[in-house]
Amino acid sequence: MHNPTGHALSDKSSATAAHAFPADGPMSAANRRAMAAIMLAVALATLDTAIANTALPAIAADLHAAPAASVWIINAYQLAMVATLLPLAALGDIVGHRRIYIGGIALFTLASLACSMASTLPLLAAARVLQGLGASAIMSVNTALIRYLYPPHRLGRGLGTNALIVGVSFAVGPTVASLILSVAAWPWLFAVNVPLGVLALGFAWPALPHTGRGKHNFDPVAALLNVITFAALIFALGEAAQRASTQLVLSAAAIALVFGLLLIRREAGHPAPMLPVDLFKRPVFALSAVTAVCSFAAQGLAFVSLPFYFEDVLHRSQVETGFLMTPWPVVVALAAPLAGSLSDRYPPGLLGAIGLAVMSAGMASLALLPVHPHVLDIGIRMAICGAGFGFFQSPNLKALMASAPPERSGGASGIVATARLLGQTTGAALVALSFGIAGRHGPTLALGTGAFFAGAASLASGLRLFAPSHRADAHVKASAK
Predict the structure, then answer these.
(1) Strand, helix or coil at 17?
(2) CA–CA separation, 418 vs 422, rounded Å?
(3) What is the share, in percent, of the chain residues with pLDDT greater than 90?
(4) In a domain, 308, yes or no
(5) Which of these, 283, 261, 290, 247, lies nearest to 465 by C-alpha position?
(6) What is the distance between the alpha carbons of residues 378 and 375, in angstroms, rounded to a whole number?
(7) What pTM was computed for the model?
């Protein structure tokens, strides 16, 4: 069993003072530049999660790759990203979040250049692995860094901006890819990241705060167990989405279970475990993580199934489908900052429960669309979904980060990104299952399933109102008044 005591890295590192939380007042110019660097890099990493899906046929044809093999252009990125999120978050708590973030931007930028120059599928897949590692470094600590740019009572506003960027970037990824492919070849999907990555580095290097270093050593064995666990889990979900053999899916799931148990056993009693089981003992944190997984699963169910519904059932063109998908991210962009500001005054559990109930109703209404719906009818229902999703995301982020102590910000930030990607991957796998069960009515079943997941997330969010830490916070606020 792992030694739970840990050791200081060095006298110098243990003596490094952590960056203090900013005082109340206007945001400093340095913090504004730091926030700009964070948002630009987060947008790039999130866009590349979705952007390759649209270009997959064009890339496969140009590289003379079989469709089944070309899926690894997507899988390589997702596997590398999800498998390393928690190890990099833990490393950020040890060596400083700034170092991980800047290193992630640099690696992502160089890997994007390598992707644009790849001439074969294996070379592109290898470059995508490196790109996924860079994106993982960015996403593993971004919310931890935001915590040091805003005073505690305005944290919701900063996390609302972050939620806005993540939600909109993921939603508009296919549209951005289509626009680039309409005027340039597929390598430009990756080449455009290079100047933007350099710009993000230029903002980040002088402006990102130094958050200090932790007192615990990095555990490479725990990191390896974590990588195997999450790589096997994402592989199982991905193969399920591709309708692979049941034996292959179950084997990968079994590997994830066995190595996950080994990871938990190794880190039992550790004061800062890589898989943050210590944070999951906090009811608000655990419920917030469950809320995130369920809600992003609902989003994944919608965003994978709706294009099939619009094109195959309603016989809309790709351009029309892109237009019909637009109301969701547009309304998210409007709702997320508002919800972030409201979360500084009202309980995140209440705001999240309301938002997810609205999202559940919106997805149910999409599943019940008439046979020949009007464009406005579709747009209104998509806008309802976007309003609900945007209203949940910022308060949930704040609840996750605020329920973790400052020295565990990296672990909490890693769970934020891990929950999002696990939820989206689960949603995609459930869409494949829906098509297998219901055939051409698969989109309707998927949307109904998404409504169920959003409803479950609303319930989990509401339960936070009765969690001990929430009641204590409410009592403190009442006493202050």
Answers:
(1) coil
(2) 6
(3) 26
(4) yes
(5) 283
(6) 5
(7) 0.77
The residue type found at 325 is M
- Split at pLDDT 50, 70, 90, the class of 3 is very low
DSSP letter, residue 119: -
Q: Widest CA span of the chain, in angstroms? A: 70
Question: Are 356 and 257 within one domain?
Answer: no
Per-residue tokens: 263: 């990871």
* Shared domain check, 78 and 199: yes
Does 350 map to a domain? yes
| Mean pLDDT over the full length of the chain | 82
Q: Contact at 8 Å (CB) between 453 and 129?
A: no
Range of the domain at 384: 271-481
pLDDT of residue 20: 52
Strand residue runs (E) in 110-174? none
8 pLDDT band (50/70/90 cuts)? very low
pLDDT > 70 fraction of the chain, expressed in percent and rounded: 89
Phi-psi region of 448 (alpha: psi -120 to 50; beta: other; left: phi over 0): alpha
Read off the pLDDT of residues 276-287 as tens digits, 9 standing for 90 and up.
888 888 889 999
pLDDT of residue 346: 86
Q: Which two tokens stand for residue 260?
A: 């996950």
Rounded CA-CA distance 92/442 in Å is 42
> Crossing angle, helix 121-146 and helix 97-117, to 10 degrees?
160
Looking at the structure, tell me whether residues 452 and 379 fall in a common domain. yes
Decide: 132 and 230 in contact? Cβ < 8 Å: no
| Residues 426 and 477 both lie in one domain | yes
Residue keyed to tokens 């999703």: 389
Residue in this structure with the two tokens 């559990």, named with its chain if needed:
349
Does one domain contain both 207 and 232?
no
Pair of tokens at residue 296: 């992003």
Beta strands in 116-218 (DSSP E): none
Pick from 366, 359, 379, 357: nearest CA to 443: 366
Name the nearest CA neighbour of 118 among 50, 170, 151, 70.
Answer: 70
Residue 194: pLDDT over 90: yes
Residues in the chain: 481
Cβ atoms of residues 391 and 351 within 8 Å:
yes
Q: How far apart are CA 85 and CA 62, in angstroms?
A: 32
